[in-house]
């Protein structure tokens, strides 16, 4: 049990996505009446370690190693008797045997969180970093492995970096790589390989901090990791891939992983017999597959099938989380989704929708959300009974999970048959309630999901009206400061406004001035959906006039200069509706709309063509009427 300590400003950049140890563990309370014989035995040896000559010290250290140092009682005995500080002081001597004996003990007892923090407090890391320069291979190995154990919390990792530990560790691995010539397939040299393994473990622990990732890169660590990734020794590969998957959160590393050809080896090791190695490879792919080029490389190197096969190992939850994460990110590319269809991956993912930890569910739902953008997979999910468990997850509290569930529900709702099931399970009401969630990502994903629901539901107008306060809620979200929330809400309003009664209610709640207030945006995605919302909201009462009065027309005219053809289409539709009001026509003419729309009349997009022509016709009709009135 230990407590949180606040991080200083210096520790910014030391954080990691991995679970990190807390900074100051509470001291373990050991009742004196419960102390074991081992505790007293170590206490007796401590005086020889403290006060003997080198020979007596070495003998005492050897005797101490006869105890089971993996037991907490023995670990704390060394700490409580003041022996820990002596062990650290012995590292700073010239006696190789004393240094070796001390490090062998420190390596074992540094598995304990209290000991780790104490080693850092007593300056042990600084001395161990110096030992990495030692010509003694065994000593160097022990120092590196002990650093790997101790550097599991921010302050320790920072100390290693600040005292040149990263460069030394990288240099050690580079030197051993040349000694073993792993890429040339020479004979296995156990001692040199062990040094490389220990140094790789130290690098792995240190790589959990952002600043250390940069330090590893500057020290030449990236090509080094690429070379070692080609070796066949699992005990070296695990820390090498572990380091890679930690560093893959940085764009510069993802670029290097792609350009150095590492994806091929990561894919190859997905078929390893060692689950830990498989897990780290899948985790590295999970992080790297944010980039489209890497998603393509995973497919090119035939990595999608082994990922699909690994879904069958559902007992190992850490492995399952990494694999489902990799599948999720790879599924962002349509070509990969088609491969997953071939491997029946979607069917397997549906079986993982229940009785799984949240970290697995987030990834499974994320993968299904991407896969159901393809029409065939929406039917597959329904036939496999996946709709009900997906809708049930709308009641979850984890915000990352909710974002993915919303996308999956929205994807499934694009098919009317699925929509009927979603509605019968109260899925639309649950989505609507998520608009109240304080997290903008949850709000936006819920609003996006509502669009296909409203579009494909039977009697959608009545369904929407059945949600008490629902229309007021969605209109008020137009006051959000988040661009994605605003964009998704505009898209939802455009769909809801197709029903006259609902449009009337939204008008009463002030939808027109709120939409007009957003019109000066430069964001093309928001422009498109805002223009669509304005176009549909013109269909009620005096709304066309109101949009003119609230100054929405002139900004809309500028949208026609955007590069996005989808913005042109939505804007032309909005301007066509607005041009039914004479005052709006005058504003459009003043803002050069006619010339811009004339160029769009020849578009291959029929909707854009007709809207542009209709708007020009309305402006021309007004001009002719004005001229006629003026000259009779």
UniProtKB/TrEMBL annotation:
Stretches with biased composition (Acidic residues): 11-23
Residue numbers spanned by region Disordered: 1-32
UniProt cross-references to InterPro entries, sorted A to Z: ARM-like, ARM-type_fold, Armadillo
ARM repeat start-end pairs: 123-165, 469-511
Biased segments, Low complexity type: 1-10
PANTHER family linked to this entry: ARMADILLO REPEAT-CONTAINING PROTEIN 4 ARMC4, OUTER DYNEIN ARM-DOCKING COMPLEX SUBUNIT 2
Name the UniProt record assigns to this protein: ARMC4 protein
Gene, per the UniProt record: Armc4
């Amino acid at each position: 049990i230990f407590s949180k300590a606040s991080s200083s400003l210096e520790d910014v950049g030391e954080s990691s996505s991995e679970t990190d140890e807390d900074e100051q563990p509470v001291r373990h309370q050991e009742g004196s009446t419960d102390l074991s014989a081992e505790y007293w035995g170590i206490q007796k040896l401590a005086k020889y370690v403290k006060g003997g000559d080198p020979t007596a010290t070495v003998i005492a250290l050897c005797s101490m190693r006869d105890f089971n140092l993996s037991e907490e009682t023995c670990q704390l005995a060394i700490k409580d008797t003041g022996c820990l500080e002596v062990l650290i002081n012995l590292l700073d001597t010239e006696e190789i045997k004393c240094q070796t004996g001390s490090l062998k003990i420190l390596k074992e007892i540094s598995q304990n969180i209290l000991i780790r923090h104490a080693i850092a407090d007593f300056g042990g890391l600084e001395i161990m970093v110096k030992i990495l320069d030692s010509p003694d291979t065994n000593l160097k190995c022990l120092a590196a492995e002990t650093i790997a154990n101790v550097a599991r919390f921010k302050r320790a990792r920072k100390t290693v970096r600040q005292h040149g530990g990263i460069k030394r560790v990288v240099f050690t691995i580079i030197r051993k790589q040349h000694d073993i010539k792993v890429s040339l397939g020479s004979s296995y040299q156990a001692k040199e390989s062990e040094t490389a393994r220990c140094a790789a473990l130290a690098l792995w622990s240190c790589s959990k901090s952002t600043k250390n990732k940069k330090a590893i890169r500057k020290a030449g660590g990236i090509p080094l990791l690429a070379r070692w990734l080609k070796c066949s020794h699992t005990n070296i590969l695990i820390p090498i891939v572990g380091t890679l998957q930690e560093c893959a959160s940085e764009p510069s590393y993802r670029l290097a992983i792609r350009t150095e050809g590492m994806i091929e080896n990561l894919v190859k090791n997905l078929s390893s017999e060692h689950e830990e190695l498989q897990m780290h490879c899948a985790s590295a792919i999970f992080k790297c597959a944010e980039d489209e080029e890497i998603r393509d490389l995973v497919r090119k190197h035939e990595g999608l099938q082994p990922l699909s096969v690994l879904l069958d190992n559902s007992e190992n939850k850490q492995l399952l989380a990494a694999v489902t994460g990799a599948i999720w990110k790879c599924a962002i590319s349509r070509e990969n989704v088609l491969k997953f269809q071939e491997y029946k991956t979607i069917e397997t993912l549906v079986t993982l929708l229940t009785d799984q930890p949240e970290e697995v569910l987030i990834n499974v739902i994320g993968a299904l959300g991407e896969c159901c953008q393809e029409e065939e997979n929406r039917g597959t999910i329904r036939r496999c009974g996946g709709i009900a468990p997906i809708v049930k997850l709308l009641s979850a509290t984890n915000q990352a999970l909710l974002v993915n569930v919303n996308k999956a529900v929205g994807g499934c709702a694009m098919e009317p048959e699925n929509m009927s099931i979603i509605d019968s399970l109260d899925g639309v009401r649950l989505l609507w309630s998520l608009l109240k969630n304080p997290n903008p990502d949850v709000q936006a994903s819920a609003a996006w999901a509502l669009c296909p629901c409203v579009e494909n539901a039977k009697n959608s107008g009545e369904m929407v009206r059945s949600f008490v306060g629902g229309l007021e809620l969605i209109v008020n979200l137009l006051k959000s400061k988040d661009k994605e929330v605003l964009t998704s809400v505009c898209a939802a309003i455009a769909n809801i406004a197709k029903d006259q009664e609902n449009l009337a209610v939204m008008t009463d709640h002030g939808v027109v001035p709120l939409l007009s207030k957003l019109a000066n945006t430069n964001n093309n995605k928001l422009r498109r959906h805002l223009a669509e919302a304005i176009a549909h909201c013109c269909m009620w009462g005096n709304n066309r006039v109101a949009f003119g009065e609230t100054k929405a027309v002139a900004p809309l005219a500028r949208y026609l200069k955007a590069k996005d053809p989808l913005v042109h289409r939505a804007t032309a539709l909005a301007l066509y509706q607005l041009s039914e009001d004479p005052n709006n026509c005058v504003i459009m003419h003043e803002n050069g709309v006619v010339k811009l729309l004339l160029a769009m009349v020849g578009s291959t997009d029929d909707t854009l063509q007709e809207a542009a022509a209709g708007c020009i016709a309305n402006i021309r009709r007004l001009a002719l009427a004005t001229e006629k009135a003026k000259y009779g």
